[in-house]
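Sample pair:
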Amino acid sequence: METQSGLKNSRWKFAKNLSILIAVSFATWLFCDHFKVTLTNSLNKRVFWSVMDSSKEKPIKSGWYIIFDQYVPKPTDRLLTFIKRAGCVAGDTLTVQNDNYNCNGKFIGKAKRMSLVGDPLVPFVFNGKVPEGMVFAIGDHPDSFDSRYFGFILRSRVKEVAWSLL
């Protein structure tokens, strides 16, 4: 028969183990929900901490990392999630000349006319102020699939804002 002291110890151990399990579960959920890693060479950074973008009306600032979904026709023919840098935002001036993209006069990237597998690419061309509610998303790598090819994304499609960790 278990003594009163032994029963108290058993309950204490159970409560302690349950608390640890709950804490570890919460930390795992928090970590997995906000910790993002990009596996492509699209950006110079690879590891990000993201936060939900609950205010779709709040402006995005140039240089911020954003997470959004974009339809990719070839080779996947489906919606994919991207992490890119906001290269030019509403109110900024985007200019394209000879496939070179500039935001407010600063070079942000160059488009290619041929993909890595030899498919022809048609660069997005726009000269003027970025319209309200739009973002020009760009990667750091020359082969990044970004707004140079699919154009502006709606601000409302930005799901998360991310900060680079590594």
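The radius of gyration is 23 Å.
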